[in-house]
Design brief:
There is one protein chain. This protein is α+β, with helices and mostly antiparallel strands. 27% of the residues lie in helices and 10% in strands. The chain has two domains: 154 residues, endopeptidase domain like (from Nostoc punctiforme) (endopeptidase fold (from Nostoc punctiforme), Alpha-Beta Complex), CATH 3.90.1720.10; 166 residues, no CATH class. The radius of gyration is 27 Å and the shape is elongated.
Amino acid sequence: MKTRNRRIAAAVLGLALLLSFLPVLPVMAANDYPYQDMTYGRYLPEDLDPWRFYFRECTSFVAWRLNNDNGLDFDNFYGGIQWGNAREWRAAAEALGIRVDNEPAVGAVYWQDANFHCSASGHVAWVKALNGDGTVVIEHYAGGSYQERSTPISYASAFIHIGDLEDGAPVPEPEAEASPESETEPRPAPEGEGTALFPRLDRIAAFADVPEDAWYASAVADVFAFGLMQGDGAGRFLPEGKVTVAEAVVMAARIHRSYAGGGDFSPAEGGEWYLPFLEYALSHEIADLDTIGRDLTRTATRAQFAQILAAALPDEALEAINEVPDGSIPDVDASDAFAGAVYKLYRAGVLTGGSGGFFLPDSEITRAETAAIISRMADSAARVKV
């Protein structure tokens, strides 16, 4: 009998030791995330949720929980800072003075840094409950699928306390300092920059295909110095090349963010290279899907380019210097969706039109023409008085 009891005890001990080394498994739970049937992993504009994250990503699910359960008005630009991939959430929170520590709380964000028990993009989850035994119950999306599971507190790099739940109610969120990106009033030109709306970078354009006497040479030098246009990486600017809708969105986003005093954009993690710029443009109402369409790789028309660009700066930065009466541009009808943008840029001296006063809204725009227009956006001294 004693031998049998010893065997049972040994078996129980062995099973306990085995279970302690097994991974934490998810448990079945109700999933009330409203976008669980949306397409996962395409990273197209139509796959962005209302909070400007991609459907069924961990960031989208946590944004849903923070809005629905914590009562926060949280999105990818909460506090005027882009939160981006999960691995960037800690830096965004700390920049806003939001508490980040190793103390879990119900309603807090369970944050994992890049490659810390997760992928290179990092990971976020929502803390549902504290177990009191060194583990927490988290809800999250991983690989496009929902999970609820208990996991060790030590598996989190940190906990972000954006607006924890206390006795079932949201804790008042801290007031974040205003971000430069949220400014609506025009900034004065930096000292020494004269009429330029934002600083030039310390670099000089030297493109093999831009002759010094070309009509667009000074414009190319300006947009390169402002960091608004680049070359092809092989020493060429490609002045006769066409501009895609994606490139137009990127330029407009750079203008808007530079004017607001923001920094450069983080590279895209997966998906198309222009996605960080597109997310920024959509969230700041620089562009909308009706204007840009679904295929951003196609060549932009002059009308599309004008619509996107006109929204990149506030009215105060595009003051009228020309009298251009409504109806005076022969091929721009007042009923056209782009008419307001075109007349605004004509009056500001940013657009000048072609032969005979025609705007040619359906024609494609070259990179040389784009450089001239962008340089006038960036520096009011380059604008044309007619």
